Amino acid sequence: MGGHGTAIFEAVVGEKALVSLDQSAAYQRLGKLHGTESMQCVEFRQGEPLLGGQQAMGYDPRSFFHAGASAMADSTKIVTAALLLIGNELLSGRTQDANLNYLARQLTAMGIRLAEARVVVDGEAEIVQAVNELRARYSYVFTTGGIGPTHDDITCECVAKAFGRRYALNPEAQKILEDYYDGSGRELNEARLRMAYTPEGAELVENRISRAPGFRIENVIVMAGIPAVMRAMFEAIAPKLEGGAKVSARAVAVLMGEGDIARPLGELQARNEGLEIGSYPFVRKGKFGTTLVLRGVDQAALDSAVEELKSILKDLGASPEDEAAVSDGSWPKLEA
């Protein structure tokens, strides 16, 4: 994909909205106008990018955080992760998740393979079970949602139960909130102080936007569900994560349907067990097409497989393109 563009974000709370080129900046400005707690209801809308390139995937280059540049990495080690999305609002459809895509991209850039994403309700048994299952299976577990001041924000307490640790007031987190609310004109009441409770022995994760911290306990990192706050927390914890072998990807697009290339594609995959080959259909100018994505840690093997794939497609009469393609909204006309 070529060019560099600028994505436009609109942050909305009730009838108030601010447009910004930076999602975090829009969040901070609305927070000053409405207070941090009202931002629990924030909705982010993203406008069309001004140009193509990275923005076609939904990111402003000035706010996109390249975590891989600062994280420790072992080019031979396989490091895995899971994401646990917590919240009734996700499962009811009231809130559309914006965290999975962001974390998948950041972790991939760091050499951490996001191998599973799970969504659970705000239920103690469900959260405890999911945390214990995932932390036993993966190098890292990231959770989002359920760490606010209200009765249904039970993630922190559930994580404490999953580890068999005491759920207690964290003096460091308490000091952060005291400093934040001091002089703000708002009281650090019992409800707000709930955001300073963590499992005993947890390491705090900085929140530069709304201050209430997340935390890390062993291989589990607990973060907010609000996208801008979650991203700020991830930026704070990322330099402390250990990356592994980084996966490279190449895409080839062709105006042929998946069914026309399924057999030779399967044979190519069988010859390249160290690579992942995915097939993603699109429609462009009323014609079916397929984007083929090859991923792997061995760059030489990846490049060789791409060239072999192009040769296969050309033998089938197609003209492969070295880029991903997306549908343009058209649809093939059915013959009478």
What would you say this structure looks like, in words?
The chain is 32% helix and 25% strand. It is α/β, with parallel strands linked by helices and 336 residues long. The protein has three domains: 1-58, no CATH class; 65-243, Molybdenum Cofactor Biosythetic Enzyme, Chain A; 248-315, Alpha-Beta Plaits, CATH 3.30.70.2860. The strands form five sheets. The chain has a six-stranded mixed β-sheet with strand order 6-5-7-12-11-10, sandwiched between helices. The two termini are 37 Å apart. The model is unreliable at 1-21 and 33-70 (pLDDT under 50).
Structural key phrases:
alpha/beta, 32% helix, 3 domains, three-stranded antiparallel sheet, single chain, six-stranded mixed sheet, 10 helices, 336 residues, elongated, disordered N terminus, Molybdenum Cofactor Biosythetic Enzyme, Chain A, Alpha-Beta Plaits
**Helix fraction?**
25-40%
Main sheet makeup: 6 strands, mixed
Widest β-sheet, arrangement of strands: 6-5-7-12-11-10
CATH architecture of the largest domain: 3-Layer(aba) Sandwich
The tally of structural domains comes to 3
CATH class of the largest domain: Alpha Beta
- Using the alpha-carbon principal axes, give the shape: elongated
Provide the CATH topology of the largest domain.
Answer: Molybdenum Cofactor Biosythetic Enzyme, Chain A
Helix-strand topology string: EEHEEEHHEHEHEHHEEEEHEEHEEH
* Cα separation of the termini: 37 Å
Helix-strand category = alpha/beta
Rg over CA atoms, rounded to whole Å, is 23 Å
DSSP E strands, number: 16
Query: In what range is the share of β-strand residues?
Result: 15-25%
Give the number of helices.
10
Mean pLDDT figure: 82
Q: Say which CATH homologous superfamily of the largest domain is assigned.
A: MoaB/Mog-like domain
What are the segments in which pLDDT stays under 50 over at least 5 consecutive residues?
1-21, 33-70
